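fold-stage: in
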Amino acid sequence: MGLSNSIIALKGNHLNKISQIFETLGYVDNNRNKEYDKWEEAETFLFDNYFDLANQSIAIRGIWVDNNWTSICDPEMVDAMEDDKISQLSGDLDAIILTFMVQSTSGLFWFAKYDKTKQRHFFAVDGRIIENMGDPLTEEQGLNINERICGDDIIKLADRLGVDFEAPHTQTTFIVKELGYGDQVQQEINQVNQPTLPKKQATQTGHDNQGKKKPWWRF
C-alpha cells in the first residue's frame, strides 16, 4: 500500500490557538479531543475513521508539537490546498507555514512554503509538474524536485526543514481533534446534496455526493 498523508506545519507552538487555526480553515471546534502517547495509535484512529466521520459532517485532524513546529495531519488531504486561508493564517500568526502532501499510488507530490504569502510551491502528479513556483529552497538541494519526485523526496525535504512527515517519534501528546464544518463549507455541502446540481459543479466544490469534502485525487 502506498504512502498517503498530508501535513500542515506551523512554526512555533500554537496549541493555544488551535480553535482559531481551524476556524480560519473553515471548521468549528467541537471541543471533543482524543489524546494518545504514541503516534501509531493516533494515526490508526485517524485513517480508520476519517471517511465514516466525514459522511457525518465531522472532520478529524491529528495535532502535535515537535522541534518548534505545530503539525496538523489531515487524512482527507484537503486543507493543504487552501492557499488563501493558509496565507491568512501565516499573517495572523506571524508564522512560517509549510505544507506537504504525498499520495504515492496516484503519483501526487506537493510541498509549499508560506510567509504571509505563498513563497514556494511544487506540485507534481503522475510524473507531470503542475506547478513549480518560487525560488528553490536550500533544503531541496540533492533531492528530485522534478518529474522524478517520489515520496522519499518529500519525506527527506520535510526532515531537513525540521518536520517529521512520516512517523513522528517525539515524546509528546498526540491530539486527535473533532471538528464540525463552518457555515461556508456546510453551505457547499448542502448545495452538493441538491439533486439538481450539475455533476461538474459538484466536482468543483471538492465534495462527493454524500457530502464529504474530498481530496481532489479521488474525483
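fold-stage: in (second)
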Amino acid sequence: MNRFNVALLPIDVIFQFLFVELASFFESSAEGYLLGENALAHVTLCQFRTANSEVARSVFNSWTSKRNIDLRMGQFHFRKGREAHAGMVWAEILVEKDPVLLSLQKDCFTHLARFGFEIFTGVETYSPHVTLALLRADSASIEPSIANLPYQTAIPFRPTVGYSTENGVFIKEI
C-alpha cells in the first residue's frame, strides 16, 4: 500500500519559494524531512494509504466539497516528535484553525473514510501547519527569520492529492 496526502498547496508559487527559503535555515540539522526540491510546502488535510495513484486520484476527484481556501499563517513553532520521531523536533509554521479549514478537513476525512482507507490525520487531533523540517532535538534552539514570510497574512491555497513519504513529505502531485 502506498501513502498519499490530500493537502492544500499555495496557489502562488512564490510562497513555495519563501517556505523553502525558511526551511533552508535547517539544512545542516534536518533528519528525513526538509522542504526543497523533493518536498512541497503544504498544509495536510488527510494522509492515507491505498493501492495506487489511480485509486487516490479517483477518490480525490470524487470529493465534491473540495475548494480553494485562504489560510492565515501563524508564527514559527517547534513541536516535539512522538513515537517514531521521539527525540526529534518538527520545525513548522502554524496555520490559524479557521472554522472553514476545520470543516474542510473533517469533510475530507469523512470522504476518505467512506472508502475504508487507513487515514493518518484524525479530525480530533488535527493541527494545521506547514512543516519546514524534522530536526535533531539538540539543534532546535534558534528560530529562523525571513523578512518576506507573511506571518498573520491570508494566503490562497488549493486542494490537491499527491505522493507522501512515511514522514509526511509531500513529494509530488498526481
